Every structure is written in C-alpha cells, then in structure tokens.
Amino acid sequence: MKWKLPAACMVWAFATAQPQDLARELDNVARTATVMVDGDLCQRIQTERSRGFMSKEDPRDPYLASDNYDVDHDAFDRTKKTLMRLARLCPLACDVNLWTPLDTSNARVQIVIRNVHEMSSFWKWGDLHQPMPPEMKSVLETGQRVVVSRPGGKVSVLAPVRNSLDDVVALVEVVAQQRVDPQENVK
Questions:
Q1: In 3-state terms, what secondary structure has residue 39?
Q2: What secondary structure does DSSP assign to 85-127, as a single string?
Q3: Residues 97-156 pLDDT 10s
Q4: Bridge partner residues of 161 (DSSP)
Q5: SS3 1
Q6: Contact of 14 with 21, CB cutoff 8 Å
Q7: Could you give the CA distance from residue 187 to residue 184 in angstroms, rounded to a whole number?
Q8: Whose CA is closest to 110, among 98, 119, 118?
Q9: Are 22 and 92 in contact, with CB atoms under 8 Å apart?
C-alpha cells in the first residue's frame, strides 16, 4: 500500500504543474516517438484505394471517402501499439496520435490513429481530413518538434516521423490536459 502514495503525489504534482512543466514531460515522449515510430510503416497504413477516395466528391454520396476508408491492418496495429506504449511514458493521462499529410503539397492533413482518451489540440470531431495547421506544416517542413498550448490547459508537442530515407512523412501529437474534463469528449 505504501507504493500508491508516492504515485498519487506524482500525479497530483503534474496535475497542478505549470504548462511549461507539462510541455517538458510531453516533449520527452515526443522525442522518443520520433525514434520509435516507423515512418515506412506509417506510409503503408492507409491503402492506395482509400487514398484515391480522399479527394473524390460525389453529390449523391457525401460520405464516399469515409465509407471507403480502409487500412493495412498489420501496419495500423503495429503503429497503434507503439503509440499506446509511448503514451505510458507520460505521468499524466496523455494520447499519442498519428497525423499524415494527404499529399506532398501539405495543404491538408488527416488523423490516422487516435488513442485512448481521444484528446487532440487539432482534430475536430467527425472530420476525415482538414486544412493543415501552421504548426504541423512547420514540423513536416523543418523536422523540428513544436510545442502548442491551447486554451483550457491543453498542451501538445508535435514531433516528426521519418522513413528509412530520413524524409519526414508524418507527425505525432503528444497531448495532455492540465485539468482533465471527463465529459469533454462525451457526445
């Protein structure tokens, strides 16, 4: 029973910490994610067939892209497990999400894997893809991690994901909230 008290104190300390303290913890996870997440595997998650439907629009079928979204299950599962393990490195409840650009123009981005707590500083519920936020564009173009603080105590660190050619092909969002609202994502 003695081991629970220090753990509870550590969680309380981080729950009352300043945003820069939380950002430092998230940055440690993000730095590790850059090394651990396999960019070649990430590039294989969404199938070519599915990618082809992402830009098609049909007035008779507004859900064409989402109805035809599919993944390579092996690549998806292996990457998701890695992201879930990375989230355990954070002392607070956090998520490690995977984002990929839709094409080489970096104009639009999609969230490919969301995790346990469904936290994100960027994802809007129900959007299959969205305009590329400037912070994400910066990570994809420079390969440098970026810290983003949002109203409500949400802090994210965006980190690059590289393939075997050392190209930045995706990014991870390591995100947590200072004050967790259990009803935030309940619809």
A1: helix
A2: HHHTTSSS-EEEEEEEESSTT-SEEEEEE--TT---SSPPTT-
A3: 999 998 777 788 888 888 888 888 877 776 777 788 899 999 999 999 999 987 777 889
A4: 170
A5: coil
A6: yes
A7: 8
A8: 98
A9: yes
Nearest to 158 by CA among 166, 167, 170: 170
Beta-bridge partner residues of 147: 157
Rounded Cα distance between 42 and 56, Å, is 23
- pLDDT over threshold 50, residue 1: no
Rounded Cα distance, 181 and 93, in Å: 11
* CA 10 – CA 186 distance, rounded (Å): 27
Q: Please list the alpha-helical segments (H only) found in the chain.
A: 4-15, 19-36, 39-43, 48-54, 64-67, 73-87, 134-142
Q: How far apart are CA 161 and CA 170, in angstroms?
A: 5
* Rounded-to-integer distance, Cα 167 and Cα 9, Å: 41
What is the model's pTM? 0.79
Side chain identity, residue 115:
N
